[in-house]
Amino acid sequence: MKTKILTWVFTLLFLGCQTPLPPDLKPNSVVPGPKLISYQQMELIGFIHFTVNTFTDKEWGYGDESPEIFNPTALDVDQWAQTAKATGMKQLILTAKHHDGFCLWPSQYTEHSVKNSPYKNGKGDVVGEFLAACKKYGLKAGLYLSPWDRNHKDYGTPAYIVYYKNQLKELLTQYGEINEIWFDGANGGDGYYGGANEIRKIDRDTYYGWKDIIAYVKNLQPNIKIFSDAGPDVHWIGNEKGFAGSTFWSTINTDKLTIGASKTDYLNSGDPNGNQWIVGQCDVSIRPGWFYHANQDSLVKTPKQLVEIYYKSIGRNALLLLNLPPDKRGIIHENDVKSLTEFKALIDTSLATDLAKGLSASSNNHRSKHPKFAPQNTLDGDPSTYWATDDNILPATLEIDLGQPTTFDRILIQEPIQLGQRVSEFEIDIMGVQGWLTIKKGTTIGYKRILRIPQTKTNKLRLRIKAANNTVALSNIGLFKSSPKEVSQ
Ligand code: FUL
To answer: What is the rounded distance in angstroms from the CA atom of residue 428 to the CA atom of residue 203?
Structure first.
């Protein structure tokens, strides 16, 4: 009997010493699914604007262009994919059809396509070749199919919607997996329209029947991400400069969005009270125009300008969709490639060495004192682990001991977005000679926030989360010293 009692006592003692299972962190009511998380993780993607406009030197073709003018002399889809890959892009999106209506694939529903062009004697299929090149170089692929069509005789009537859906069906069933479809909101009015040469206006809210088109697309490609001003998966950032707001929520209220007519400020900031998770995407061209124009060869964005865009898009919790328009030969121009190469080298150098990785971190609170939520998790370089506090702890403070005076000028912070986007106000302090000194104030973090600060030397850094819509959790903090060339270029 005595031994039995002792065994019980020891068992209870043993169980009592075990780290108790922590109370799980409650996710926000709006969170991204795995599909949108992996989409966001691509960070940098590329755009290819290429069509009859490349040959007419226009931005918007009227729709009366002869397919005969589409005649690239040295089209090289591998060069597009190689360039994208070398720049660190994870996906390319091609204008399968722009507003002029010319189709880069031999659609059976129109004569206005590559099949009537001199390209490969009408036997070419730029969409198919592009998709094969993406596959070859391990890139995801997306297609842009302009809803507005200035060539088609039926544009403005229900017959055009049947045509548009037929084209979607061709693109989404004949070429394997398509990762993204891009619906722009432009509807300019005038056009060729099969020879009518008139202005046609449509009701943006009702004409396309977006709800039905979205369901149709998802039915054909269940894993596809749909881009438009209004999502449903990815939304426009509200400008064509490539800049997300310095406050940027991945949540947004879909009731306030209409494809082609959403408020740009709203798209640029997102909404802390949004009812949907829609990833923000910053589209911008490496040149002033979306299409290639020889007279813009000297106006290619400099590596420094691209770096600025990088910090204001990827560094602000959004994706960067950078346009690289092929020229009349059908390749991305040397000047663009040079700028991209230098841009990539700058970013890679600046963010190469995380000076905080593996150092020690402490916090004013860590959830249940359980290792699963330890502050150290923010410095382990593993995006799946995170620090979290007990509920209702604000400010939540995390301190990094750098061990020795360390110089840095870039601070990277990430939230574990599978739990939602939470932080709305934070401050960063460094240990100065007279104690803590605030060097930066910010609002949102999200998937990734990269802050630029003047070069700073300290042996201790502190992050204070002052406001959040739920218990604070951070997955990663990094400190970097940027390439001196970033500023001097
Ligand atoms: C806009 C279009 O009007 C431009 O030509 C370009 O394609 C841009 C990316 O989207 O809506």
So the answer is: 48
